Hints:
The chain is α+β, with helices and mostly antiparallel strands. Helix content is 25%, strand content 29%. The protein has a single domain (6-187), classed as Alpha-Beta Complex (YbaK protein), CATH 3.90.960.10.
Amino acid sequence: MSLPPADVLGSLEAAPALDRPDLLAEPVRAALAATGLDAYVTPIDPHLADTENFCARYGVPLEASANAVVVRGVRGEVERFAVCMTLATHRVDVNTVVRKRLDARKASFAPREQAVALSGMEFGGITPVGAPADWPIWVDGAVADQDWLCVGSGIRGSKLFVPAATLLGLPGAERVDGLARALPSTAL
């Protein structure tokens, strides 16, 4: 395993993720142990877990920070979920791209309580690593094009650093170009 580059780590120091299971939600730890995927973890102030505050405090570039959002699609009585990965500088296109891919009449971000209960992860730390096996993981092309990324660890008190190849190597993961759109610079 190669270390994440300093320009992605900012002021943080990271250790191999499985060396610090105390910094991982149980589903994340189990997934990393089962797959052996390349991942590093670092502790952070849980009050700074939200991306904008985290990046400002620790010097991690927004362009190297990827957010996982749980989306829910409904058609009739059928509910489907997916994890969408987007750069912090982008927003997932839930109403068009996600809705069509979920074959749903209606799609939205999953309610916080539902996302937490179903994923086994804390809100603000949700990650595709360890997501439920029946959820597809859609990785926006802008995320897939990065070398290294900072993502959630399943808890608010740490972050994972992973190569984009790690995300694309997860079971059920797929690159989806156009999954997200860049936010106007004033929205950052």
